[in-house]
TrEMBL record:
It is a multi-pass membrane protein. It comes from Paracoccus suum. The lineage of its organism: Bacteria, Pseudomonadati, Pseudomonadota, Alphaproteobacteria, Rhodobacterales. One of its GO terms (biological process) is methylamine metabolic process. Pathway: One-carbon metabolism; methylamine degradation. Residues 24-76 form the Glutaredoxin domain. The chain crosses the membrane at residues 101-120, 126-145, 165-185, 191-212, 233-257. One of its GO terms (cellular component) is membrane. This is Methylamine utilization protein MauE. Keywords: Membrane, Transmembrane, Transmembrane helix. May be specifically involved in the processing, transport, and/or maturation of the MADH beta-subunit. It is found in: Membrane. Residues 126-251 form the Methylamine utilisation protein MauE domain.
Amino acid sequence: MSDLSKHPAPGTKAALYRMVMPGHTCPYGLKSMHLLKRAGYQVEDHHLETREQTQAFKAEHGVATTPQIFIDGKRIGGHDDLRRFLGKSVADPKATSYRPVIALFATTALMAMAASYAVTGNPLTLMAAEWFIGFSMAVLALLKLQNVETFATMFLNYDLLAERWVPYGYIYPFAEGLAGVLMIAGALTWLSVPIALFIGTVGAVSVFKAVYVENRELKCACVGGGSNVPLGFISLVENLMMIAMAVWMALAAFGVAPEGVHRLG
């Protein structure tokens, strides 16, 4: 990596060619402009204002995409090439990552604590713990319901019940969402507990068999069918949380365990 990319000399010029049309402004062109300015380059911003002008530019420089960046007359390439030139990472769209589920669980935990604080003045309550699981189930169901067909197809790769009865893959997100909402409300325990216990148990056994017995490397359908989350520990935790919540609420219904604050009074 050259010193020029990290610490350009004062007045070092960068030419940016990007699409700016009445109905379309290239987002990667804007991101490239931001990167160049932050790095300290003096940017010459060239707009490609028509499709014909854009195609002519591509043909002239032998490139397939825009934007294109030139620094001191040397072509660097597009947005990703610029990131590499500046020493920044470039995400691999095919790489597996736990980031979606980490972000989801962190958000639902904060939601649960915020709701608990609004009701009791204390973010760390039994109610917050119960709501965390309920919120997580509801949000996970929402992500699956964005494209049930894609979710069901990915789900068939490892779920033991769905492999034997295909409609289960389509029913699952609705069941998970219903159980989550009922658990948040603390209502119809006789319905939410069996649903959560059933889908959680089947899910946990399916994940354990696929990952820890058969050592298969699969993508998890837990956050929808289009994710790159690997099937494994996080997927197992999702199902174990549902089982734990179902058991807890069942015990509370029989007076064996304390009820959450939101169901008192």
